[in-house]
Amino acid sequence: xxxxxxxxxxxxxxxxxxxxxxxxxxxxxxxxxxxxxxxxxxxxxxxxxxxxxxxxxxxxxxxxxxxxxxxxxxxxxxxxxxxxxxxxxxxxxxxxxxxxxx
Length: 102
What we know:
By secondary structure, the protein is α+β, with helices and mostly antiparallel strands. It has helices at 3-17, 64-70; strands at residues 29-30, 32-37, 40-45, 100-101.
């Protein structure tokens, strides 16, 4: 299966599940790239243009012990497998035009 067939199948899968929709506007279009890691392809959307519109916050822990000391009982910690994240993370309708890709 070549890259074009793979991307076409991924887009069709996204449309079928509702994770993707046809663009209503082409004002903000990003390039989608195929990344291959451990023999598996994934569609990567470069949305660096959005970086200037959000607050830049960083968290740095010197060690797991340091992180543990900073945590409180009411803190939440989670992780997510991003393999199919775009199938699970909803976007506010007003923000969707900023995630248009070709």
